[in-house]
Amino acid sequence: MSETSATMIERREYKYLIDRETAAGVRAAIKPFCQIDAFAGQSPTRTYTVDTLYLDTPDLALFWANDHEQVDRVKMRVRGYADAPTAPVYLEVKRRINDVIAKSRGKVTREQYAQLVGDPSSAIPASITGKDRGAVERFLSLARTLHIKPFTLVRYQREPYFSTIDDYARVTFDTHIRAHKIDRLTFEPDGRCWRALDDVVTQRSSHSMVVLELKFTNLVPLWMVNIARNFGLVRSGYSKYGNSIKAFYSPIDNRTAAAGGWQ
After folding, report:
1. Which of 44, 80, 182, 197 could form a disulfide with 177 if both were Cys (CB 3.0 to 4.6 A apart)?
2. Nearest C-alpha neighbor of 151 from the set 64, 50, 45, 39
């Protein structure tokens, strides 16, 4: 969770859908340039569990802007970490203009976020100060103007690395991506309706896929360029939120095989 202290991040993100064999190769290739995030490094799996509660307008305007790849679009979400259930959560606005990502995130307690987001009359507590307060104000201004509400909870395992030679460069591997349809401000759904978003059926592949993300500020580091070339990586438009909405709110394709699961 190396980015949790930053309240404003501006960067570029390149996403790739790769198989586990390729992921192992990329993991080995980044070793001279990166080290694993300290929090994930404490886990035997070298991952942590990310919970992201996605919010949208009643007519899913944010989803459609993303699905149609509008030049200027935003996502609004509340992010927490299941491995740290008493830790704060983050109110995030992720704006994308072409290839540039500008993300603001304000830290609040788990007791505060549902009241702030769910009740338009709620005042921001005095305990939220500084840059966090500015980010929370921005989130709530948009949330209350757009009348957003929760639609899906997305949970996944993240294996994160950060560059030891660049000011800002990150490599993440996301697996076991699943979603739950939800209409309440909670990270604890009933657990009976989880749906995989990276399994063999959803991705129409022989193996579950890994979402690889290369993140950097302005110029892509040369070592990232070389890794992308050496492994023949092809950028993907994979969207966790977009796929979660399609999973629960789009008609089922009867041509899709019934068997699945992570492999």
Report:
1. 197
2. 64
Give the span between the Cα atoms of 201 and 48, in whole angstroms.
Answer: 25
Output the domain CATH number for residue 67: 3.20.100.30
Residue 210, pLDDT above cutoff 90? yes
Per-residue pLDDT band at 143 (split at 50, 70, 90):
very high
Looking at the structure of the chain, the number of domains it has is 1
Q: Which two tokens stand for residue 21?
A: 């064999």
Give the separation between CA 244 and CA 53, rounded to whole angstroms.
Answer: 11
Mark out the alpha helices in the chain (DSSP H runs).
Answer: 20-29, 38-41, 61-67, 110-118, 130-146, 200-203, 222-230, 240-249
User: Has residue 261 been placed in a domain?
Assistant: no
Is residue 178 a contact partner of residue 66, using CB atoms and an 8 Å limit? no
In a domain, 206, yes or no: yes
The number of C-alpha atoms within 13 Å of 42 and in the hemisphere containing its C-beta is 7
pTM listed for this prediction: 0.88
Residues 171/212, Cβ–Cβ less than 8 Å: yes
**Residue 92: inside a domain, yes or no?**
yes
Contact predicate 212/172, CB 8 Å: yes
Distance in angstroms (rounded) separating the CA atoms of residues 221 and 151: 36
Inform me whether the pLDDT recorded for 262 exceeds 60: no
Q: Half-sphere exposure of residue 102, counting CA atoms within 13 Å on the CB side? A: 8
